[in-house]
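ligand=adenosine-5'-triphosphate
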Amino acid sequence: MTDKYVTENFITQIIDADLTSGKHTAVVTRFPPEPNGYLHIGHAKSICLNFGVAADYNGTCHLRFDDTNPEKESAEYAQSIKEDVRWLGFDWQTHEYNASDYFQQLYDFAIELINKGLAYVDDQSIEEIRENRGDFNTPGKNSPYRERSVEENLDLFKRMKAGEFDDGSKVLRAKIDMTSGNINMRDPVIYRIRRLHHIHTGDTWCIYPMYDFTHGISDAIEGITHSLCTLEFEDHRPLYDWYLDNISIPNHPQQIEFSRLNLSFTITSKRKLNQLVENNVVDGWDDPRMSTLSGMRRRGYPPAAIREFIKRVGVSKSESVISMTVLEDTLRSHLNKVAPRVMGVLRPLKVVIENYPEDKEEILTGANHPQDDSFGEHEIPFGREIYVEQSDYKENANRKFFRLTEGREVRLRHAYYITCQKAIKNEQGEVVELRCTYDPESRGGTADGRKVKGTIHWVSAKHAKNIEVRLYDRLFNHPKPASLDNFLDAINPDSLTILKDALVEPYLLEADQDVVYQFERNAYFKRDKTHETDQPVFNQVVTMRDSWAKLEENSQ
Ligand code: ATP
Ligand code: MG
């Protein structure tokens, strides 16, 4: 069971029942993004559910672009969506569609509704329509144009299509019930006039169908069995069913709603993510701090870890905010298993080992993974001058500080014991160098059984490679940025720290540049795609430990 993409939930139970009863013999789902932005972590839930369910049941999942809103859609977005779905590990095979593929059929179905007396052309303005719709407490008012004859409606609708009327001057509406308790059923608009160039149909159409009309019919045309969508569409389900019940189409897919994925400290709205890009808060949709899939890819999140996270979150109908810690913990436990280890010093402090011969060099070895020998090992050069992390030295250290301070001995990972003899300061009083001695008998990290509690990482000064490291913190310093009047007020000013002096052992740059590495004791890092400079750039994927859990607890 554990190799399934989706663990059992109320949707798989419905599918099981449908297969048992013979209502369906195969499962067909669809993922229906609107190409008006880049996909985000919320979409990953829908992708893993739709493609995952299809895969688990040996069914099919279609990728359908919901391209009914020409003003906001672009081919660039559609391309990025395909890249992201593939990256997450899913495949729609030959089943790539656009809602616009069905514009002619949708038009014909609209004609059918008119012929049945179930749709009419309304000359009211959008404002009047809105006003006359009423609200939760007030029933709507019938449009003065509601009783037009079938002939008149057919004539006007055809002329709408032919471009005889101005944008916004007329709409086609379904004739349902202006007093319905469900506002979506109060004669919803089916078509509006919009003279806009469409990414696929160009200037063929000047009338465009609305989402609710398009979506269900597209599902039915494609033979979708289970149309899985988020809870905000629950109130639209009667309309989804009404359209399918009133046109001549054999299939009637079942719409099933589940709750959206909300992640703390994160925005999951393409519109708001777009604002971050437009306002230059981030440097593009794939900025590693973005909750977009392209940002996560660039940052180094493995797709398998994202799938695992979505699986952990599960599928239900209850609204909740998932803690960012859950995502980060999933990343950590995944990376702990798959990331090779290297040593990298982010903020270097020079160490001279006074009793180590000036011209001597040694090649030591380090395991690539402490728990998994199959990762092999690699060579690590050692010499008289090394760099250690600035934070591994403390001038006035108490007895619980097991790292470097004058007179204290520590173990250099994969190398020797060294004892700090003296700290050298510059004119500002800052420590710029440590003078140490080493124990030649302690190679490999053991000597005569004496206790050395601290182990620190290091790199050889002569051999180390300089890299730029980008440390990321959360982009928002509020757990629910979307709940604020202006989510931009919650931008964390310290979300990016650039360190240009970081040093790594040479092996890192010789090894595979496409995997995530653990810089021991520091964090997980992945090489950035950028080649702007000669200096390699590494992005911090996730820290070793969670430093935010407290803040989140306190603010809930
Ligand atoms: P956004 O507000 O970010 O534009 P959307 O729902 O309008 O989101 P679509 O492109 O229409 O974006 O979404 C494609 C599919 O992904 C839809 O079926 C939608 O329900 C689903 N989806 C979007 N956001 C989430 C989320 N946070 N959790 C789960 N599913 C989501
Ligand atoms: Mg949408």
